[in-house]
Structure formats: C-alpha cells, structure tokens
Design goal:
alpha/beta, 2 domains, five-stranded parallel sheet, 394 residues, four-stranded mixed sheet, 47% helix, globular, Rossmann fold
C-alpha cells in the first residue's frame, strides 16, 4: 500500500519519548486516518483508536471514557507505553478542556500514554489548541495530494491531475464522469458543508453558504469582487457575510480568496479577492465541459490550468506556512506571489504563447523579489514545477 511522506514523520514522533500531543490536521479525504492506521499497524506499540463520528460521542465526558478505557487496558496488561488515537476530535464540544485534563493527569502520574488527535476542521482545532493546550501539542499538517503522489500511486498524467485534482478516493473513478462527480459532491462538498461547517458553526443563511462556494469555485483562478457576487446570488445580504463564509471555507481546506500583494496591510484587506480552490476537482465539478472537451477548448483549459497550479500552491502553503497573493497594477499582473519571512517569489502561469508576461518585469522593478519564474510556455514546465516543493523556492 502506498505510504505518504507523513507516514515517516508520524512514526518518528510516536517513537519519541512522550512529550507532546500530536495533532494531525487537514481537509477531508486526504488520507489522514489511512496514514495513521498504517503507522499503528507497523509500529511496535499497542494502541486504541476511537472516532468522534460514533453516535455515542456527544460531549467531552466521552473523551474521558476513552482515556479511562485506555488506562484500564494498560494497567491490566502491565504495558509500559500505549498510544491513544481520537479521530474527528473537533466534533466534541469543549474537547480541548477534556484533553488537557486527561493529558495533565497522565503527566502527573507518569503514565506513558502517547496521544494522537485527528481533525478536518482547522478553525475548530486551532481554536481549541490555542485556548487550552498551549505548549502541549505539535501539529502535523496534511493537505491534498500532489501531482507526484497521484502519478506514483494512481498513474495520473499531468492533464489528469490538473483537471481531476488530488483526491485519492476518487482516482479510480475518473473514467466514469458521473460517478467521479457524485463522489466529489457527496464525500467532499456535502460532507464538509454539512458536517464541518453547518453542524459546528451558526450560519444565518445555509443556502447562501452553498451558493457562495459554488460561484467562487467556478471562478477559481479569477478575480471577482464581493459586490459582483452579491449581484449574482439570491438573498446575498452584505459583503461581510460573504467574507465570513469564504473564511469558513478556507479553514476547511476548500476555497480561499487571495489578497492583492501590497506592503500596505489596509490595501491588501480591501483588495478584490482572487478565488482559489485548494483542489481543482472543486472547480471542474461546476464546469459544463468534460475532460476531453476542456482539453481542446483553449480558453477554458487556460483557466483550469492556472487554477490547478494555484491549487497546488495554496495547499502547500498550509503545510509549509507561507502566504500566497496575486498582484495587479493597471494592465500588469502576476498570477501568484509567495511570501515567507520577508522573502518573496513571483510566479506567472502561462498556459499558451499568447499570454503576456510583462507583469513579472513590472513587479520585479517595484518589489525586487528573490525569484521570478514562469510556469508553462517559455519557462519551467508545469510537470517539473508540480514536482517541486514550493517552500524550497525561498
């Protein structure tokens, strides 16, 4: 069975002396539970695996019950160490307080119970971690599968990856468009909206949240002002409502609104967003074109291609903690600006020979980036770029 790079990292962390709670976070259907189960099967330490998706998991007393069951087994069998794993931890109300209580109790009584928590809602996880577990945890961030991983595991070629994205569970369905689309809609879109957002966050207009996601995903890789969105959506309310919904979609690894690069914070915040999905599958399910039709439609493929490169960049930014922007000044534009600790990289995506690249020159003159590069025609090939790790560009 294919093992992602996180397999080695999680194994190493669990073999270390007990010091931190390990928190594996990332969007739905990227293989968090699978890679953890692979580690548990191979590591020579006994474990218990619990899931908060179980009907009995209602409040944080359930967490204490999981802990007590683990301690009981450990004591009965005279085990020196044990691993406790809880999946979808963010679904339990006040989960972090219960985890803190049990972790601190084990620390005080010298119980060698190593803890691994998994979750798919970044905002709910980080809220709990910052509120109660400061200094007690480490993050292991997972994201959508890269081109290299989809190629090695499923034999994807570049065009297939650009169009169908990086969901491993849907890889074997790409030859049946209806089944593939149904999987993305039910296992990704509906599950995220209904379970990760609507179930845990007060939403005044659930239909508007769904409409916002659909419209913004369809425009992935393009600029679209919130005011124009209001004109296209039913019962849209105001821009603050839409901005809040986009923030929630971002925290669940679905969609983000890139800001214009500027040294002025206020200008960045007030800029027109450039929408970008985290996985290109979330864009193309709203396209009227099939894979083969998109390939021969130069204009449509150009948008899909740019969005596919952007999806890779924003997904990697979550793992490697760098920022992604766009830049525009009159007729000059750069598709993606990456920034980490003051170091800046400018990237122009060129899907055909007709696209101008004067924006790179204008941006370089104004901001003097560490690196400027073209991805596509006239520059580094998309296949080569998608096998690089963007954080190494800094």
């Amino acid at each position: 069975m294919y093992k992602k790079i996180e397999y080695k990292l999680i194994t190493e962390r669990l073999k270390e002396p007990r010091k931190f709670i390990q928190v594996v976070m990332g969007p739905r259907q990227v293989g968090k539970s699978t890679v953890v189960k692979q580690v548990l099967e191979d590591i020579d330490i006994p474990f218990r695996f619990f899931s908060a998706d179980q009907p009995t998991a209602f409040n944080n007393s359930w967490i204490s019950n999981c802990w007590e069951a683990t301690r009981s087994i450990m004591a009965q069998q005279g085990l020196a160490s044990y691993i406790l794993v809880i999946d979808e931890i963010q679904k339990i109300s006040n989960w972090s307080e219960a985890v803190k209580k049990e972790w601190d109790s084990d620390t005080f009584h010298n119980r060698n119970i190593k803890v691994l928590l998994l979750g798919s809602s970044r905002v709910l996880l980080e809220r709990g971690l910052s509120e109660s577990l400061s200094g007690r945890f480490e993050e292991i961030r997972m994201t959508h599968w890269s081109y290299g991983e989809m190629k090695e595991c499923f034999g994807f070629n570049l065009d297939q990856y650009i169009f169908f994205g990086g969901y491993p569970g849907a890889a074997h369905l790409i030859d049946d468009a209806d089944r593939w689309e149904q999987y993305i809609q039910s296992s990704i879109v509906e599950a995220t909206l209904n379970k990760d957002i609507l179930l845990d966050t007060p939403i005044g207009k659930p239909p508007l949240l769904r409409q916002t996601f659909e419209l913004a995903s369809a425009y992935s890789g393009q600029l679209l002002s919130l005011n124009k969105m209001i004109g296209s959506l039913q019962d849209a309310g105001n821009t603050s409502t839409l901005a809040g919904y986009i923030h929630l979609l971002d925290e669940c690894g679905m969609l983000c609104g890139l800001q214009k690069y500027s040294l002025d914070f206020a200008r960045r915040k007030s800029s027109i967003p450039k929408f970008q999905v985290y996985n290109n599958a979330l864009k193309v399910i709203f396209s009227p074109l099939s894979f083969n039709q998109a390939l021969i439609n130069r204009s449509s493929w150009g948008h899909i291609f740019e969005s596919g490169i952007g999806a890779y960049l924003v997904s990697q930014s979550f793992v490697h903690r760098f920022e992604v922007f766009y830049w525009r000044d009159r007729n000059d534009e750069v598709d993606f600006i990456l920034r980490k600790k003051g170091s800046v990289v400018a990237i122009e995506v060129k899907s055909n020979a007709e696209k101008r690249t004067s924006g790179l020159e204008a941006f370089s003159e104004q901001f003097n980036p560490k690196l400027s590069l073209i991805v596509g025609d006239g520059g580094i090939s998309a296949e080569e770029f998608l096998t690089l790790s963007p954080h190494k560009l800094f």
